[in-house]
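S.,

Sequence below, as promised.
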Amino acid sequence: MGIFSFFNKEKKETLDKGLSKTKENVFSKLTRAVAGKSKVDDEVLDDLEEVLVTSDVGVDTTLKIISRIEDRVAKDKYVTTNELTSILREEIAALLTENHTEDGEGFDLPDNKKPYVIMVVGVNGVGKTTTIGKLAYQFKKAGKSVYLGAADTFRAAAVEQLVIWGERVGVPVVKQKMGSDPASVAYDTLSSAKANNADVVIIDTAGRLHNKINLMNELTKIKNVMKKVVPDAPHEVLLVLDGSTGQNAFEQAKQFTAATEVNALAVTKLDGTAKGGVVIGISDHFRIPVKYIGLGEGIEDLQVFNRKEFVNSLFGE
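The prediction came back faster than expected:
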C-alpha cells in the first residue's frame, strides 16, 4: 500500500467539486442521449460514443468502452437507460484496473530504498513544480524527510518557484546558478540527501519539447549521473500532464514516454476543466498508472488517484 492510501469524506467532497465541470458536461450530454429512450439500443450507443469522445476520453478508449457495453447488452438481453451509468462506472473502473491503476495507491517507500528518488518530467506550464511542492508536503506530513532538486536550470522562474515551495513546506532545495548542468544539480541533491539520511528526493527537470533528441539526451544523462550516487535511481519517473489541455495532453504523454521510461502519471488542473475524461483515455492508451490528480490550488488539493471514487464521482454513484 502507498503511504497516502486513504480516502475520507473531505477528500471525496474535494474530488466531487474538482470534477464538477466534467461531470456536468458528461451528464448533460448523457441525459440528451437517453432522452425518450427506455432501453440501450444502437442509437443510444452511438450517442454515448459521441459523449465520451467529446469529453476527451479519446477515440480508441471510447471504442473499447462501447464494445464492453455492447457485450453487456448482448449478454443481459435487455438493459435500460437507467442502468447505463452503473454499467459505465463498472466497465471504466475495470478498464483502469487492467492498466494497473489500483485504488488509492500513491508512491510506496520500501525500507530498502533510501533515499527514494522521484524524477518529475513534463512541459512548462502544466503545474510540474507545484505538483512537486504538494507531493513534498504530503511526504513530510507522513513523517518523511524530503530533499528537492532544482534541475530545471534553464528557467530562473522554475528554480525560484521550487525554492518558494521548499520554504513553504519546510524542506531543503538544492540548486546551482542558472544554466548549470541539470545532471550536476541532480548529483548534488542525491549526495546531500544520502549524507543526511533523507527518505525521499524529488528532482525537477526542464520541460522543453521543441527538440525531442535534446530532451531525451538530457533526461538520460540525469538518470545516469544519479545512478552514481543511488545505483537504482530513479525509482519513479513521474510525468505531469495538464488535464485542461485535453487531447494535447495525449501528445505530451507520447513525447515524454518516447524520451524516458515514465512509470507514473499525475494529471493536474482538473478542477478548471470539463475535460476530466482525459484521465481515463491517457491511462488506457499508455498503460501507465495515474498516481495523483490535481483538483485545485490549495496545498492539500493533490489527491492520490482512486479509480472507483473517480469513476463514481464522474458518472454519479
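The CA atoms of residues 69 and 87 lie 7 Å apart.

Coffee later?
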